[in-house]
Predict the structure of Acyl-CoA dehydrogenase.
Amino acid sequence: MAKPHPSPSIEVESPVHRAARLGEEFALTAGAHDRAPSFPHANFDRLAQEGLLALNAPQRFGGHARGLEDAVAVIRDIAQGEPSTALVLAMHYIHLATAARSWPAAWAERLGREAATGISLINALRVEPALGTPARGGLPATVARRTANGWSLSGHKIYSTGIPILSWLAVWAHTEGPDPRVGTFLVPGGTPGIEVRESWNQLGMRASASHDVILRDVAIPADHAVDIRAPAAWHPQDPTVYAWNTLLVAAVYHGIALAARQWFLRFLQTRAPANLGAPLASLPRFQEAAGEIETLLDVNKRLLRSAARDADEGHPPRLTESGQIKLTVTSQAIAAVETAVRLSGNPGLSTEEPLERHFRDVVCGRIHTPQDDSVRIASGRLALDLEAPVP
């Protein structure tokens, strides 16, 4: 449940400007959280103090009622400072948007009010050891059984991003019986029967605490089954919710690449080998490389901003197009950072500098749903007039 917290600060600057300021602040401790690894609890204290946990909650619930364009900008700027924080925040925004569009109105209000008044975040627990990501099909092994007072959930989830701080776990499960339904069951964090196994020890996004979660007969009330349907009824997805998913994930990795860009430009401007007698920035080869990075990231900025604005205006991208944008932005973010690493040599790979961390973090963009092969197959089938699966 929401933890008590002082009211958000008086609005004297826009949420986007606050995010840019916090991103600079979070960058100061990002390396330490990566090395430990440790979860950045203090960052979420600051996000709550600045009112950013309720960015896209309605104003009547205490939120800012901001749309996807502002959410993309906030996530981008937080990710420049500490990307694991940005990823947890992005998932929270996605679920506030989902609740507003497809969950009972009482839940959208409850989640919005809690986010506006305390450190209350929500994320999904969907991926499983045997199933993998549900986006590739199949029923989850996690089962929801009817009880006299509601539901009892049992299962094993992996990659539960942000689990140390989540107030709400949106658990993907199927119901018992010959005609199972599948969907989202809301479990309050700290409910008896939840075990967190601290298994997360990855190359990148190390501070995200994306640990395993074991659910053993976790009891929840009946109304916590917020959206359960026949499996076939989950397709096609809501294009607006899908745009929130794809664009916010892409914004995390765009932000990482922007941080790498800043390091690389400073490196070129200050590195002056004795045999050159001038900074590397004076050489056409490095000017061209800087221009290559600028081109990739300027295109990313334009893609994210225009697609988010379209969604805010009621014209979200098609499902395949949202997938293409996520693929393009993350691929170009990775390419930009790779260029910086390649041309900076040993200094860029030193653990004393942040570029090697940016490189480890940015390559994680490939693993988020929709993954590259799924996007390309869906796009190709659509072009060939075949039935296109959801990317």
